[in-house]
Amino acid sequence: MISNMKIGLDCRLAGTKHAGIGRYIANLLQELIKDSDVNWVLFFHDREQVEEVLGKDTKKQNIKLIIAPVRHYTLAEQLKMPAIFAKEKLDLLHVPHFNVPIFYPGKLAVTIHDLLWHHHRGQSVTTLPPWQYWLKYGFYRLVTGVAVQKAKRIFVPAETIKDTVSHYYPRAKNKIIVTREGVEPVFRNKTLLATSKKPAKNLLFVGSLYPHKNVRLIITALKLLPEYTLTIVGTRSAFADEVKKFVAKRGLADRVKFAGRLTDNELAKAYSTAFALVQPSFSEGFGLTGVEAMASGAPVLASDIPIFREIYQDAALFFDPYSAQAFVAAVKKLESSNREKFISRGRAVSAQYDWQHTAQLTAAAYRELV
């Protein structure tokens, strides 16, 4: 218990609109506020976001809601949020992303999901003009450095990310805590999921279309897999139009479907009816969609990178993310293997990830600090 303590959580990135980070914040929050001995101060962007994450019944005595319509990654965030946070006289503020307000004077915890942009940088990863991109990049490095320096605890989702943060910020190593992510019940709901009938030869990709996601490799490989189709699920990103042009130029428009954003029920069904989820990324912070797919009964084809080896263990088929031929070979191996074996392994691995456990580890760190 953290009796009578006042803990703030920046929830402005909570919800499915903000992909994996949004899921992390929403699920962590829903578990944390079950502790009624804490006075929770929750900072949301708007009332609609509150209802998505907490529902309409938000009148618990130990919860105070603050609506702060300040956009993340902006100068306004740096200038306005310190005062908004400080006004609440918090014992601890947890900012669940690197975008901390650098002038906030109070005790701080932060979550670093990855340091992707530390090593994936330059004009190939942006649609901005050079001057604007490098200004934004410099600001990113400044804010991240301050976040790591000022935070009393740094939460990361995996040992791989702990190693990465320790590499760039060696002095931070002793305050890093690994709190793995979890799987929501909807992805284990057997009444929603497909039966074990033979699936259509449809590959599923779930996520943004940033270059590091490497979805073009899968599109290229479709030329070598004429019986297969690809469904792309995710919120629209700045690179979506480029990917659509890439598909069209290769004459694959009839075999690649852009499904947009799905509800969780729809996503669970999409996982369970796919031949496999594909994860071709060059870099990730955790790989939550792969764990969700495993919980839903879908095999996972994943790029052979350290984070996926750590999280997916023996439950995925791994391939070289720089080789379309290697991906094709992984698909063929899944065709010829006992597919049920990978489904069974996936369910066992996904069972290791639980949001309640994530919240317990996080709350224990709060107790140490407060």
In short:
This protein has helices spanning 19-32, 47-54, 75-86, 116-119, 130-150, 159-168, 215-222, 240-249, 264-273, 288-296, 306-312, 324-336, 339-350, 355-369; strands spanning 6-10, 39-44, 63-67, 92-95, 108-111, 153-156, 176-178, 202-206, 229-233, 256-260, 276-279, 300-303, 316-319. It has 370 residues and is an alpha/beta fold.
What would you say this structure looks like, in words?
With 370 residues, the chain is an alpha/beta fold. It is globular. The model has no long low-confidence stretch (mean pLDDT 89). Strand 1, helix 1 and strand 2 form a beta-alpha-beta unit. It has a seven-stranded parallel beta sheet, with helices on both faces. A six-stranded parallel beta sheet has the order 10-9-8-11-12-13, with helices on both faces. The chain folds into two domains: 193 residues, Glycogen Phosphorylase B (Rossmann fold); 166 residues, Rossmann fold (3-Layer(aba) Sandwich). Helix 7 packs across helix 12 and helix 10 packs across helix 13. The chain contains 14 helices and 13 strands.
Q: What's the total number of strands?
A: 13
CATH H level, superfamily name of the largest domain: Glycogen Phosphorylase B
Strand count, sense and barrel status of the largest sheet are:
7 strands, parallel
Give me the side-by-side strand order of the main sheet. 3-2-1-4-5-6-7
| Portion in beta strands | 15-25%
